[in-house]
Design goal:
Heme binds at residue 443. With 705 residues, this protein is mainly alpha-helical. Helix content is 55%, strand content 6%. The strands form 3 sheets. Strands 1-2-7-4 form a 4-stranded mixed beta sheet. The protein has a 3-stranded antiparallel beta sheet with strand order 3-9-8. The chain starts with a helix and ends with a helix.
């Protein structure tokens, strides 16, 4: 039930019972009320209704409603929401006063229905009351989840997911309209789920994963401090407890899913010496410190990461791209910075973002105009305090309007314009940004969010030209929700740039395959994987039935027909070796029954790679020869690499989906993907593609030669 419908339901009936309840309320609290009236509260709208207070004023979008009230009442005002006093702050100086001088006073959260059920009875990092338990959660977050060390360990996952998005966009064609809202949500949710649990939750058709995504969406849509039942027991009673029952049901579904995830990983970590997802790491810590890492705490930590880390980043990316489409001059300037700092020889990486100030300024300006949390997470005062010269009694709910502060003309020059240049040279205005909150309850995942948004945005600008899908500017109206999404999903025209081919940097994946990697730790790791996981006697014996079947299949084909005839053996041997290797790698033939368009194209790519292999390209020996050639040879090889990479990535996705549905699968690719679950840093998609290419297809290349 939203606020307006709640008010309409109430106004038509139950006036007399409410009136008598109101009289009783006044009688019981007359002494306290008189005492508080003698103190100076912030100004308040005159339209309070008995029992309900100012609930009827809370019309979405709430941050704009509060901004309009602040124009009349000033930068700090109070509202009576049922039986709860709320104070709204729309000034940077007052927000700073709340979270510096009164930081401890406002270090608590209000007890809301959502916090009770979804927040594991107020025990999660974002909802726990200030005290020892919260300090322990904050320590766990700072050291074990959001530390630079942990985030760096999980960088391969973020890199892979960002480049997977770019690869999908590149494969769609040279010039086409793409819908970015769902792409960004898929990216951020899968990135968080892989960091947390080691697997994606989009694209596999899994019913459980689909159900969990819907639960998360519904939790986000119902979050915030705008449920009437949170303000007055009467409003909760009038609703018949419907809202709370719905939320409790969501909480049960969420808990069931998270508990099952824990059990799966607990079983896996008991079998493996090491595992590198956040969930595996927390379960390892549980073994040594069970009092700090019980299942409820772990589920709460995982849930906070998924709720806070996926939707907000996706929304920020969509607003950033919308602004760039409406300001093509800014987009050009950002691309020029990337071309200058990174060039076209390699793709931007997460570590490069610190050297791209203009890109960071674009993100800051996006967060200023379109903060993912336009109203900061509510706080509540633990004792009486003074803010802006006004008395705020204990249990006052504090709502900080970050959206209004970010558009305050007293703070910002030209506040409604999108101007990344305002932050140049360490701009004086940057300190006024509060998209992640202030004080000791500020968002602990701010660093991760900035990494994901910066890396993704940089990749999309570097790899593609972007244009609006129509003549008119992109619609910038806000939709409903606490994370302030765009009302209309963003669509844009995407055009591949030449650097797209470097996503699979030529045939050797930028010198990272076993045959091309420089001697060192990376090569030794690849050599170990090859010796133990691919070419060991155990693995080869396990795949013997495939080799036996293919050889006997060739013999059977030769035996079929007349007793004496001429046969052409070159193509027969090509077919034998190619199908044998592809069945060992991927479980399917690429000739005969499995001869589809994709198979034929891949065979042609292999032939062309073989034809161009070796060390006979003049440009490899004299740089001027590369210039004389106009880079034609390299462009051709890069295009081949792009086609090769696209095929191998598709093969990986098919098998990843299959292995998630089956308990066991016996191809080399299935085996490598199983190893990826426990050691993602050693078995990234790029490493697996390189292993498949070198350890299977190179054998075929020798025969083609």
């Amino acid at each position: 039930m939203d606020l307006q419908s709640a008010f309409q339901n109430i106004s038509g009936y139950l006036f007399l019972p409410l009136f008598f309840l109101y009289l009783a309320h006044l009688a019981l609290k007359s002494t306290t009320t008189a005492r508080r009236l003698r103190r100076k509260l912030p100004p308040s709208p005159p339209s309070a209704i008995p029992i309900l207070g100012h609930v009827s004023l809370l019309k979405p979008p709430i941050h704009r409603t509060f901004h309009a009230l602040a124009q009349d009442l000033g930068p700090i005002f109070s509202l009576r929401l049922g039986s709860r006093l709320a104070v709204v702050v729309s000034s940077a100086s007052l927000a700073e006063e709340c979270f510096t001088k009164n930081d401890v006073v406002f270090a608590n959260r209000p007890e809301l229905i959502m916090s009770k059920h979804i927040g594991y009875n107020y025990t999660t990092m974002t909802q726990a009351p200030y005290g020892d338990h919260w300090r322990n959660l904050r320590r766990i977050g700072a050291v074990e989840i959001f530390s630079a060390h942990r985030l760096n360990a999980l960088l391969p996952i973020r890199r892979e997911e960002v480049r997977r998005l770019a690869s999908r966009l590149a494969a769609a064609g040279r010039r086409r309209v793409v819908e970015l809202k769902s792409a960004f949500h898929e990216l951020t949710f899968d990135t968080m789920m892989r960091m947390v649990a080691g697997k994606r939750f989009y694209g596999d058709g899994d019913e459980q994963a689909r159900d969990f995504r819907e639960v998360i969406k519904e939790v986000v849509s119902r979050s915030g401090a705008t449920n009437p039942g949170d303000f007055s027991p009467v409003l909760r009673w009038l609703d018949g407890g419907k809202f709370e029952k719905t939320v409790a049901g969501l909480a049960r579904r969420t808990d069931s899913f998270l508990q099952k995830l824990i059990e799966e990983h607990r079983s896996r970590t008991e079998r493996l010496d090491s595992a590198n997802t956040m969930l595996d790491h927390l379960l390892k810590l549980q073994e040594s410190e069970p009092e700090y890492y019980n299942d409820k705490i772990i589920k709460g930590l995982v849930l906070v990461m998924l709720l806070a880390g996926s939707d907000t980043s996706a929304v920020t990316l969509e607003w950033a791209m919308a602004n760039l489409l409406n300001h093509p001059d800014i987009l050009v300037k950002a691309r020029e910075e990337l071309d200058k700092q990174i060039g076209e020889e390699r793709l931007v990486d997460e570590a490069d973002i610190s050297n791209l100030p203009y890109l960071r300024n674009i993100i800051s300006e996006t967060l200023r105009l379109y903060p993912a949390a336009p109203l900061l997470v509510p706080h509540v005062s633990s004792e009486d305090c003074v803010v802006g010269g006004y008395h705020l009694p204990r249990d006052t709910m504090l709502l900080v309007n970050a959206w209004a502060i970010h558009r305050d003309p007293n703070l910002w020059d030209d506040p409604t314009s999108f101007r990344p240049e305002r932050y140049e040279n360490g701009g004086k205005e940057s300190y006024k940004l509060i998209p992640f909150g202030l004080g000791r309850r500020s968002c602990p995942g701010a660093g991760l969010a900035q990494r994901v948004v910066g890396f993704t945005l940089g990749t999309l600008i570097q790899c593609f030209e972007w244009e609006r899908s129509g003549v008119e500017e992109v619609d910038m109206n806000e939709g409903k929700g606490i994370t302030m999404p765009k009302e209309k999903p963003l669509e844009a025209i995407c055009i591949n740039r030449p650097i797209v081919h470097n996503m699979g940097k030529h045939i050797g994946y930028n010198y990272t395959t076993m045959t091309q990697a420089p001697y060192g730790d990376h090569w030794r790791n690849l050599r170990r994987i090859g010796a133990v996981e691919i070419f060991s006697a155990h693995r080869l014996n396990a795949l013997l039935p495939i080799r036996r079947e293919e050889v006997r299949r060739l013999a059977s084909k030769l035996a079929h027909g007349s007793h004496r005839r001429v046969v052409e053996l070159k193509s027969a041997f090509h077919e034998l070796t190619f199908d044998t290797m592809m069945r060992m790698v991927a479980g399917e033939r690429f000739y005969g029954d499995g001869d589809d368009r994709g198979s034929r194209e891949f065979r042609e790519v292999i032939k062309e790679v073989a034809a161009r292999g070796g060390a006979t390209n003049p440009g490899d020996f004299v740089p001027v020869m590369r210039w004389i050639d106009g880079g034609k040879f390299e462009k051709t090889v890069a295009e081949l690499a792009g086609r090769m990479d696209s095929f191998l990535q598709k093969l990986i996705e098919e098998h990843r989906s299959k292995t998630e549905k089956l308990d066991s699968a016996n191809t080399m690719l299935d085996h490598l993907l199983k190893l990826q679950e426990s050691e993602p840093e050693y078995y990234s998609d790029q490493i697996i593609k390189g292993l498949v290419l070198v350890n299977s297809l190179i054998i075929i290349l020798l025969i083609y030669k």
